[in-house]
Amino acid sequence: MLTRIDHIGIACFDLDKTVEFYRATYGFEVFHSEVNEEQGVREAMLKINDTSDGGASYLQLLEPTREDSTVAKWLAKNGEGVHHIAFGTADVDGDAAEIKDKGVRVLYEEPRRGSMGSRITFLHPKDCHGVLTELVTSAPVESPEH
Ligand code: CMX
Ligand code: CO
């Protein structure tokens, strides 16, 4: 079951400048940043709010790391802007299988690694009324050591 907006993915040419815009304009700080080579992105997660399912909602700012990445290709065609939305779920495998049964193309056979150790997959935008849609299961919260 999809229980939150996990994040909105925003493609940008210059991650540092875009982070600074969100900080200076809205006061949002970087919660986490990383490079995901498989996805071809350098990214910053700005936490906006916690959610009632125990998760959170973020903005995910994305800068391409290589010219053949999906985000670089998209930026070349569209310029900067909203690239995808992501729904959070406790069960990305089960939800992706259910959605696939409804005739929507799921882009990965198995979920891949996303931000902060999450597991992610994508639905084809042409099957989702023009919206590239991601499904995310966050990494389990590590319990404190005793
Ligand atoms: N939103 C909406 N439509 C999109 C889109 C997007 N982000 N990206 C592509 N499209 C549309 C294109 O406009 C194009 O439509 P037309 O045929 O009408 O022109 C069509 O989909 C095909 O686009 P394309 O430019 O030829 O791109 P590809 O088919 O090579 O790739 C996609 C599209 C969705 C398969 C690819 O972007 C993908 O695999 N995305 C998932 C991975 C990803 O986006 N990773 C980066 C984010 C990582 C993260 O969130 O952690
Ligand atoms: Co994303």
Write a structural description.
The model has no long low-confidence stretch (mean pLDDT 97). It contains 3 helices and 8 strands; from the N terminus they run βαβββαβαβββ. The longest helix has 12 residues, at 15-26. It has an 8-stranded mixed sheet with strand order 2-3-4-1-5-8-7-6. The protein has 146 residues and is an alpha+beta fold. It starts with a strand and ends in a 9-residue tail after the last strand. A hairpin with a 5-residue loop joins β3 and β4 (56-64). Helices cover 21% and strands 39% of the residues. The chain has helices spanning 15-26, 70-78, 92-101; strands spanning 2-11, 30-36, 41-50, 56-64, 81-89, 112-113, 119-123, 133-137. The protein has one domain: Roll (2,3-Dihydroxybiphenyl 1,2-Dioxygenase, domain 1), CATH 3.10.180. Keywords: Metal-binding. It holds the Pfam family Glyoxalase_4.
Share of helix, binned:
10-25%
Question: How confident overall, as mean pLDDT?
Answer: 97
How are the strands of the largest sheet arranged?
A: 2-3-4-1-5-8-7-6
Strand count, sense and closure of the main sheet?
A: 8 strands, mixed
Strand content is 35-45%
Name the shape in a single word.
Answer: globular
CATH topology: 2,3-Dihydroxybiphenyl 1,2-Dioxygenase, domain 1
Bound molecules: carboxymethyldethia coenzyme *A, cobalt (II) ion
Radius of gyration: 15 Å
